Amino acid sequence: GAVVSQHPSWVICKSGTSVKIECRSLDFQATTMFWYRQFPKQSLMLMATSNEGSKATYEQGVEKDKFLINHASLTLSTLTVTSAHPEDSSFYICSARDLQRGSYNEQFFGPGTRLTVL
Amino acid sequence: AQRVTQPEKLLSVFKGAPVELKCNYSYSGSPELFWYVQYSRQRLQLLLRHISRESIKGFTADLNKGETSFHLKKPFAQEEDSAMYYCALSGPTSGSRLTFGEGTQLTVNP
User: Fold this and answer.
1) Residue A44 at interface with chain B, using a CB cutoff of 8 Å
2) Which of B32, B90, B96 is facing A32, going by the closest CB pair?
3) Which residues are CB-contacts of A55 (< 8 A; sequence separation ≥ 6)?
């Protein structure tokens, strides 16, 4: 239980294009999802908190117009990297909370999406 | 500001030896501490959390509020324990957001 999926698992795009990454909670409803970015051999950096039916809360230094987050349903959040550039190349990971299971603050993680911008 | 520090980026031990992965934190209030593990080519998964005070795969971690530490320990390391370990913190003022440490890559040699 408490499975989170991401799609695609990897994507290569040209500079200047936009890329959408999906995060789904498969067997539970997630009112809150989180988006992280992870550079090679580094820790996870929280980018934003995605709340179902409302605007995402972005961490300091994260451009909200660059990284568009939509959480239209209780099982789906999307991250769109707009006008992607090579420096946006990274591993993007989402997580979700399942209030029915685990502690209030426990998060369940997706497998991640590897984005490469040429 | 909340912060999690894992002083060792790399830790290497032999099979059967005790292992301790260090984690220190700074937080104003009562935090909730977690250890997450990431095995090679797998997603991040919860190993244990301090509120449950449980032992998972032989690992234990005790929250020491005086020393603001949450070290992860296992008396006899196994090769399958080789992975990346992240200490993480959350608390009432962080809105359930997790702050991760830098991670420690544990290698258990045969």
Assistant:
1) yes
2) B96
3) none
